[in-house]
Design goal:
This protein has 248 residues and is an alpha/beta fold. The protein has a single domain, classed as 3-Layer(aba) Sandwich (Rossmann fold). The chain is built from eight helices and eight strands. Helix 5 packs across helix 8. The chain is globular and about 50 Å long.
Length: 248
């Protein structure tokens, strides 16, 4: 794998915005996305390493690995390091700008595995088939709640028996008391990563109607209702969690 260039610094919310609009994964965000997510998501690099490690134990030769909401391809690059070569990757994202960036980044990384990048709306039925691993990394939280169960059923139906869904999400605490604390700790994390109070406030406002987190227990219930059997938490940091769900 080649050394990837350093990402452009996130300054999307650096200047005061008179009227903050809903967050969109357009050109402005795409340019700085890798810096944004690495400074905004605790243990993001470790999450990626864990996704690659777990995927390596479940990806089956001759099958597909799907990354839904693949953004700039970071997860695919990490998973690629560890799994057999005769597995094809399919990345799906609603943002064509993200997919363009993803394609460039995969090539910069020296990616040789066959892959397909597809423009797709996760609110619609997706053509998932022959999948041994499906990844939703910080993606389900952006799907409107009314459509989440349908998406998970879509994934379940497309997975082969023995296949897994890897789900990483921002979550709410089970108790509102702890929820306030966890949000405070999270904003402290962003401050440590040199985000200003204005940046934190304006991004929170932009995400308010776009990113809708569930409790960990609610996500587990959704997975069970979609048909998944065994489910386990593999990562937890205050208001972020990682889940693995198994199809028998």
């Amino acid at each position: 794998m080649s050394e990837l260039p350093q990402p452009e610094r996130d300054n999307v919310f650096e200047d005061e915005i008179t009227k903050v609009s809903d967050f969109k994964f357009g050109t402005t965000v795409v340019k700085v996305f890798d810096d944004m997510v690495s400074r905004s998501v605790p243990f993001y690099n470790e999450m990626q390493r864990m996704l690659g490690e777990i995927a390596a134990d479940h990806a089956k030769e001759g099958s597909f690995v799907y990354d839904l909401g693949c953004s700039t391809g970071t997860t695919m690059i990490e998973v690629d390091k560890l799994i057999p070569s005769d597995i094809r990757f399919i990345g799906i994202d609603e943002s064509t700008e993200m997919l363009d960036k993803c394609d460039i980044k995969l090539k910069e990384a020296g990616f040789v595995r066959p892959y397909e990048l597809v423009t797709g709306d996760l609110h619609e039925k997706l053509p998932i088939k022959n999948a041994s691993v499906v990844i939703l990394c910080l993606t389900l939280q952006f799907v409107r709640p009314l459509y989440r169960e349908r998406l998970l059923r879509n994934i379940y139906e497309g997975l082969n028996p023995g296949g897994v869904l890897l789900l990483v999400e921002k979550v709410l605490a089970e108790s509102t008391v702890f929820n306030r604390d966890f949000i405070k700790y999270y904003y402290n994390y962003k401050r440590r990563n040199h985000y200003s109070e204005m940046e934190i406030s304006q991004k929170r406002e932009a995400l308010e109607n776009v990113l809708i987190p569930y409790k960990l227990s609610e996500n587990l219930l959704l997975l069970k209702e979609a048909g998944f059997g065994d489910c386990e938490t593999f990562f937890k940091w205050y208001n972020f969690s990682g889940l693995i769900a198994y199809k028998k």
